Amino acid sequence: MRKLIVFLIVLVILLVALDRVAVAGVERDLANRIAAASDLSGTPTVTIEGIPFLTQAIAGRYPEVRFNLGTLTYGGVPVKNLRGAAYDVTAPLADVLQNRANVRAGRVAIAGTLTRATIDKYAPRGVKIGGNGKRLTASGEVMVGVQKMTFSAEMRVEVADGGIKLQAEKIKGVPDQVAQFVSYTIPFKGDLPFDVKVTGVKSVAEGLEFSAEASDVPLRG
């Protein structure tokens, strides 16, 4: 009986060790694929959620694979803390071991932050962006005819044709029509990895945090 207990303990330890070795190998392969899709020169941090891992590997299906890409630039726009997850990843073990291309994600969701510096960079000349983390504001000077006038406004943030638009509203100090000259779009649609489309945006302390998604995404080696 004692020998049987010792054998079972050793067997469990070996299975746990094998599980961890296997997950490290598949995470490395998926990290290389995600790096290729994101045009990374380095390797991102990748974590396969769920245990035990071997049951997922044998089935060739991973419900959730999380990754962190760090700070990258797309379409000239710096994106800070770009991270996300691939869901319902189909990756037959043989394809992973032989680095074949038959790996897909049912859905990929990513999120990232545009800093205040980036938001300011794309603002019209004379417009300064501020805010309290919950709402962005704009202030500055604009020409109204031949007269330079000081204004302040709140900025509504919304997704517009895949990019992020900042629309001035509740403008003060100048006629309401001037709001269109204070409004602008940060243009990085179509440049994000995995061909994701921006689906939402919100104001945060560091600037603007956006979310984006794509479906049926190939993860090529």
Describe the protein in words.
This protein has 221 residues and is α+β, with helices and mostly antiparallel strands. The protein folds into 2 domains: 2-112 and 212-218, no CATH class; 117-209, no CATH class. Helices cover 27% and strands 48% of the residues. It has 5 helices and 11 strands; from the N terminus they run αβαββαβαββββαβββ. The chain has helices at 2-38, 53-59, 93-97, 116-121, 179-182; strands at 45-48, 61-74, 77-90, 104-115, 127-131, 136-144, 147-160, 163-172, 184-186, 197-204, 207-218. The strands form 2 sheets. Strands 1-2-3-4-11-10 form a 6-stranded antiparallel β-sheet. It has a 5-stranded antiparallel β-sheet with strand order 5-6-7-8-9. The longest helix is centred in the first third of the chain and has 37 residues, at 2-38. The chain is elongated and about 70 Å long. The protein starts with a helix and ends with a strand.
